């Protein structure tokens, strides 16, 4: 059984009252008499003008942080004030807070995967029945049968959607004669380049989930 991650919910601030009504919140904090020890929450409140909680600032802003200071109180500051008045302490605590925030988001995503694991495994089994095992075996055989540079080129073509292949071969004597008759003034080379363009159709879905593959052949020289 796969265990879920425990998630300690981070404080979410949607309005100024969400932090102003907190027991330890204090407006007019003097940054020269205290130090920043922790970043508690981040806020982005576009429909409300928020004023900085520092006594020497009070500038309006919309995005900022609720922080804890060394005297045990909490106040709110913008990013500029954080850097300007608390320097490295603010930078370090902000990075720690943002890392924890990202980690919480990852845990939530993983918990969703765990919650839906039965559906995911069921979908995998369905894909196997529809031909995924055959496809994986075919890809493995290609990797074993061809040099790595060839496999790499095929993968690159697949990513770019490039289905054009050129094949060079020597012209037969009959092909050389025909080419010279068609265009006597041309410098006919003995090497013939053939253009192959892959084309597919939907196939017989009753018997196979895979499309039929064919090639259109064109002489380019």
How would you sum up this structure in a few lines?
This protein has 221 residues and is of the alpha+beta class. The protein has helices spanning 17-20, 79-115, 117-145, 148-160, 173-182; strands spanning 36-44, 50-51, 60-61, 63-69, 74-78, 164-170, 191-201, 212-219. The model is unreliable at 202-220 (pLDDT under 50).
Average pLDDT across residues?
A: 78
Shape: elongated
Number of strands: 8
Q: What's the SSE pattern?
A: HEEEEEHHHEHEE
Main sheet: strand order? 1-4-5
Q: How large a portion of the residues is in β-strands, by DSSP E?
A: 15-25%
* Number of helices, where a helix is a run of at least 4 consecutive DSSP H or I residues: 5
> Into which percent range does the helicity of residues fall?
40-55%
**Taking Cα atoms only, what radius of gyration do you get, to the nearest Å?**
33 Å
The N- to C-terminal Cα distance equals 63 Å
Low-confidence stretches: 202-220
Quickly give the structural class. alpha+beta
| Largest sheet properties | 3 strands, antiparallel
